[in-house]
Amino acid sequence: MRTRERAPPERAFGILNIQNMSTQQKRIRKDDGSRPPKSDGSSMLDRSPPFDLSAEACVLGCLILNPDVANDLTLILRTDDFYDDANRKIYSAIISMFDSG
C-alpha cells in the first residue's frame, strides 16, 4: 500500500503562503500561465451577458403566485433585466397591471 506524501506547510490545505516563498518562486507562480490574460474589455462587447431562463421563469411564477412582492421587486428588477423577450413582456404586463390597481 502506498502512503501519500505530506504536503509542505506552504501548500497544506491548498493555501499558498507567499511569505515563505523566494522571489524566484513568486515570479514563477505569477507567470506560470495558470491565470487567463487580462482583457482590455473589447471581447466583452462580442459576448451576450449571462442569463438563466429558468431563473426568469421562477421570478415570473413567484410574482404571479404572490403579487404582494411586486412593489419590492420593482425596486430591484427592471424590465430590461430579462434576457428573454417574452419574459420581458410578461414582466412588463404584470407590473403595469400592479401599477393600475
Précis, in short:
The chain has 101 residues and is an all-alpha fold.
List SSEs in N-to-C order. HHHHH
Binned strand content? under 5%
Please tell me how large the radius of gyration is.
Answer: 25 Å
Helix content: 40-55%
| Sheet of most strands | none
Low-confidence regions: none
Spatial shape: elongated
User: What is the number of helical segments per DSSP (H or I, 4+ residues)?
Assistant: 5
CA(first)-CA(last) distance = 74 Å
Write a structural description.
With 101 residues, this protein is mainly α. The chain has a domain at 53-100. Helix content is 49%, strand content 0%. It is built from five helices and no strands. Helix 3 (53-65) packs parallel to helix 5. The longest helix has 16 residues, at 85-100. The protein is elongated and about 65 Å long. The chain starts with 22 loop residues before the first helix and ends with a helix. The mean pLDDT is 75.
List descriptors.
101 residues; elongated; mainly alpha
Topology at a glance:
Layout: H1 23-30, H2 42-46, H3 53-65, H4 70-76, H5 85-100
